[in-house]
Write a structure and sequence with these properties.
Elements: E1 2-3, E2 6-7, E3 13-18, E4 23-29, H1 33-52, H2 55-71, H3 73-83, H4 88-109, E5 115-116, E6 128-136, E7 139-143, H5 151-162, E8 166-170, H6 177-188, E9 196-198, H7 203-212, E10 216-222, H8 225-235, E11 239-243, E12 248-252, H9 258-270, E13 280-286, H10 287-301, H11 322-337, E14 341-344, E15 348-349, E16 352-353, E17 356-359, H12 366-369, E18 376-382, H13 385-393, E19 400-404, H14 408-417, E20 422-425, E21 445-446, H15 451-457, E22 459-467
Parallel strand pairs: 7-8, 7-10, 8-9, 10-11, 12-13, 12-19, 13-18, 17-18, 19-20
Antiparallel strand pairs: 1-2, 3-4, 5-6, 6-22, 11-21, 14-17, 15-16
Helix pairs in contact: 1-7, 2-4, 2-6, 3-4, 4-5, 5-15, 9-10
Length: 468
């Protein structure tokens, strides 16, 4: 692990498993409380160094790190596919996005601008002029999940470096190697020591220190709602940025192009084994289209090849662990016991769970209210847009949604009324580029990610006024 610019080994280690066959892929050091305190102490110096780095150095380092990742892209892809759930094709796409995220971070480093302030807008202040500029807040604590083990780390480190902050990354224990490799890229790019630490270990042992320490000025967390609520209670007076998942809805209206809609929604439901905060979980289809949509959705789902992650012909690999696959199986079985209908899938083999489609699910069922985070999608028949919006909003999440229609008036009705952070028109909820503001409402989180918007979170305005 990287602590304050130095690579550290420990006698006590944590095994990192390949979920496909449960073999040990690698090991990482198991950090102690003392290691975390050391990382924070180093970051206190690193924050001063980072704040003094001129912009041209920041963007040069970010571009060099991007070059390093691109140059070693197959190693990064193989690592993502080995320690996580993604197929090699999905992993390569994530590496490409990571490069883009770092490049965008370099570009946005040029654009951390302030504004002049017209103090003479208030009578008696005609002899005053001034402006504000943005300054880095200090040390960022970043806690990242397993499902995008490289690009979501880049979404923390890239903006932190661009905005002149120090950052300590605690990656998911299940998938820490990708984060360590990204730290190698920044090391090779010449990032000054102590600006970045990537520390591996048990969250229960080192996590509380990281989030509650008074030197930490912001906690950037991507993960589950329950953990996010615990962090918020423990963090104290500091900035919080949280992306806490969802159970994203998609609405399919009478005039939708069914072929395009099915293709988009199947991909959106089963990309990365459904372990995706944007993943399509609930689809509301109007009555006139429902039977055709169901038939074509099942046909498309049944073409998915589930198997070896490293096989380029594979569409879907295993979940992150057999434990997670068992949980998904239990949720599906609970819904079936409550009267749901299984249209396809519902089979588990170790950590593998087949692409699964349910209908006749009660809107009060756990699987309809919570984030399944697995390859399961629920189909609901609705009368019209009003009913679809009412049911889509009837959960404690609101990250992104999708709607398929050719009617611009209906699209704007959905824009106005859906309680989400983003609405994709004629796309599924599973759409994102790394330069857009990304985040949700209700239980889906606080603040916005996306490089430019993360930088806004990681900086503060300072007002300067001259009395002439």
């Amino acid at each position: 692990m990287l602590i304050g610019g130095r690579w550290i080994e420990k006698e006590e280690t944590i095994n990192v498993y390949d979920p496909q066959d449960n073999t040990i892929f690698s090991t990482v050091p198991k950090a102690t409380k003392e290691d975390m305190l050391h990382a924070i102490e180093a970051a206190e110096e690193g924050a001063k160094i980072a704040a003094q780095m001129p912009v041209h150095e920041r963007l040069s380092i970010l571009n060099k790190a991007a070059d390093y990742v691109l140059e070693h892209s197959e190693l990064y892809a193989e690592t993502i596919a080995s320690e996580g759930s993604k197929t090699i094709t999905e992993a390569r796409a994530e590496v490409s996005r990571c490069v883009d995220t770092l490049r965008i971070s370099a570009e946005e480093a040029r654009r951390i601008n302030g504004e002049t302030i017209p103090f003479d807008q208030m009578p008696g202040h005609e002899n005053r002029v001034g402006y504000y500029y943005k300054f880095p807040i200090g040390i960022i604590a970043a806690i990242t999940p397993f499902n995008d083990p490289l690009n979501l780390v880049a979404h923390k480190i890239g903006p932190a470096v661009a905005s002149g902050n120090a950052i300590i990354v605690k990656p998911a224990t299940l998938t820490p190697i990708s984060a360590i490799l990204l730290a190698e890229a920044f090391d090779a790019a010449g990032l000054p020591e102590k600006v970045l630490s990537v520390i591996t270990g048990s969250g229960s042992e080192i996590g509380d220190i990281l989030i509650s320490h008074p030197s930490i000025r912001m906690v950037s967390f991507t993960g589950g709602l329950e953990t996010g609520e615990q962090i918020a209670k423990k963090a104290g007076l500091k900035k919080l940025s949280m992306e806490l998942g969802s159970n994203s809805p998609v609405i399919v209206l009478d005039d939708a192009n069914i072929e395009d809609t099915v293709s988009s929604c199947v991909s959106g439901a089963f990309w990365a084994v459904g372990q995706n905060c944007l993943g399509v979980q609930r689809i509301f289809v109007t009555e006139s289209n429902f039977d055709e949509f169901v038939q074509k959705f099942i046909t498309k789902t049944n073409t998915y090849k589930v198997g070896d992650k490293k096989d380029e012909a594979t569409n879907m690999g295993p979940l992150i662990s057999e434990k997670e696959a068992i949980r998904v199986e239990e949720w599906v079985n609970e819904a079936l016991d409550e009267g749901a209908t299984l249209l396809t899938g519902g089979k588990r083999d170790g950590a593998f769970y087949s692409p699964t489609v349910l209908t006749n699910v009660s809107t009060d069922a756990k699987i309809a209210k919570e984030e399944i985070f697995g390859p399961v999608v629920l189909l609901f028949q609705v009368k019209d847009l009003d009913e679809a919006i009412e049911k889509a909003n009837d959960v404690n999440y609101g990250l992104q949604a999708g709607i398929f229609t050719k009617d611009i008036k209906l699209a704007f009705e959905a824009i106005k009324r859906l309680e989400v952070g983003g609405l994709m028109i004629n796309d599924s909820s599973d759409y994102r580029i790394d330069g857009m503001p990304f985040g949700g409402v209700k239980g889906s989180g606080l603040g916005r990610e996306g490089v430019k918007y993360t930088i806004q979170e990681m900086t503060e305005p300072k007002v300067i006024q001259f009395k002439l």
